[in-house]
UniProtKB/TrEMBL annotation:
Keyword terms: Membrane, Transmembrane, Transmembrane helix
Domain of life of the native organism: Bacteria
TM regions (residue ranges): 71-92, 99-118, 145-168, 188-216, 228-250, 271-290, 296-320, 332-357, 377-398, 419-441, 539-559
Protein name as catalogued: Membrane protein 6-pyruvoyl-tetrahydropterin synthase-related domain-containing protein
Taxonomic lineage of the native organism: Bacteria, Bacillati, Bacillota, Clostridia, Lachnospirales
Amino acid sequence: MKKLLDRNRICITVALLALVFIASLPAFRSGIYQGHDLDFHLGRIQAIAQELQNGQFPVRYESEAWYGHGYVSTTFYGNIFLYIPALMYLAGLPVWRAYNIYVLLVNVATVLVGFYSFKGIYNSRKWSLIATTLYTLSGYRLSNLYVRTALGEYSAMIFVPLVAYGIYRIYGKKDDRHNNAIKLTMPLIIGATGLIESHILTTEIVAVFVLIFALINFKQTVKVIKELLIALFAVLGLNAFFLVPFISSYSAMKLYINSAMTQTSIQGDGLYLSQIFGLVTIGRGSNWPWSTDNEGFLNLGLLTVLCFVIIAITIIITLIKKDWIAKEHSKYKFKLAMTMFGFGLISAWISSVYFPWNLFAGEGTFDKLMSSVQYPWRYSMFQTFFFVVAAVYCLKLVGAKLSDRTDSKIVEFNLLRRIDKFSMVVLTFVGLVALATTAVFDYTLSYGNITVNYADAPADWADNLYLPDGTDRGLLENTDTTVDEESGRVTLPVLAYNNLHVYDESGNELEWAAGDNNCIETMYDGDANNITVKFVEPIGWRISEVISLLSLVAVIILYKSKRKAEV
């Protein structure tokens, strides 16, 4: 039995390594395919490295962005994981290689975290492996990795399964097994923290789905409210160092992201049915409003469509044969799976051109919250995840029924000796389909994109989301200091963000205001070349960092003390 278990582990390990290798093939190159957001994320990595060299920690402000005018994307965009490639860049690696290594690490984390999370949900290694394969090699995730190069979003995809498992673990708790609240809620705490520090938009969407789930299961929610509150306060404490600066800056500054951007409807960027059920995900293309032309990278792919078909067939069977789900325990799990399927259908609708996004184009708080997603098809991530969770449960249900009818017949297969025939067939089929769809994606990726190998990020890497509202990006190429001799007014080539302090050559602080093109204006009668601008963190931000550090220490101590008590 021990040898059998060891062989099973070896087989699973080899499969997971193969999954990482297949997902990472485009990263094993001497360069990077020019993805949509590549320049921006290379710039983020380089900016973090530069600011660390300048003594800024944690990094909140990119002083060299926009030709030296400065930028604040790190205040609004979780970047803790980007310190890894930033340190590689500081160690001498070109920024493109540091990025490729990060992609590889993300794939490793996605596979490992996914396998752990799905194993907790299904209580089975083989079904967890199937779910991990479907999720890791899904069309939307591959497009995020290599076409969109949406670093924040594909990093967040590491933690979505962990949050789902964390919720499942709390709602399915048993008093005789989980009497340690910190241990019970740890997957949710880590998962939510990972989401916040990766991609705030994904975090907001996940939070809405969790809230809806809690309301649907209100009776169970009341029973586990203590654990949910423990997780909530732990997450808020651990992430205070990011959330406090983010919220205070978002509410205090008028930027493109919270003003002009949300006034325009994003409905035209939604998906059509031909994309939602598109069988082939193409490794190239661009986004065009009210069109599917050259948008094959947004096709969700055969794996996700198969998940939908599996769920639909299972629902039809259960409607015809109502005795299929006889046990109360099975009924509860089937209800959970159908809830996930319902969430997937809602996600598909919201991601489409058929959702009334026009209603949310405006300056209201709810309008800004809805439209801040930028592109409706971001919800495709959740359609993919929810379909995978529900489909694998349906397959497991079918497998259990077939096993009952065949007296649990098994199949011998080299290293993995005891595995039921149905799951072996499913695993083989899913693996072959995943290989085929990934091969098509990689092929179209290779001939449809140019390869770049930047040693350093382009000078114009920054986007416009966090520019002060009304800023003319073209004028930012001018880096001259302008002096009005008559009035003594000096216009510095630095954008007027909050928490910037202006000093003269003697170290005296100068008052300033936003002037032409949202650049800093100050009154000074000396040599303007001696004026310096520094970013200074407010004391409240420093306090939030202390709170996060203390929260981390407290969580570790509580977790370890409870483990010792259990021993």
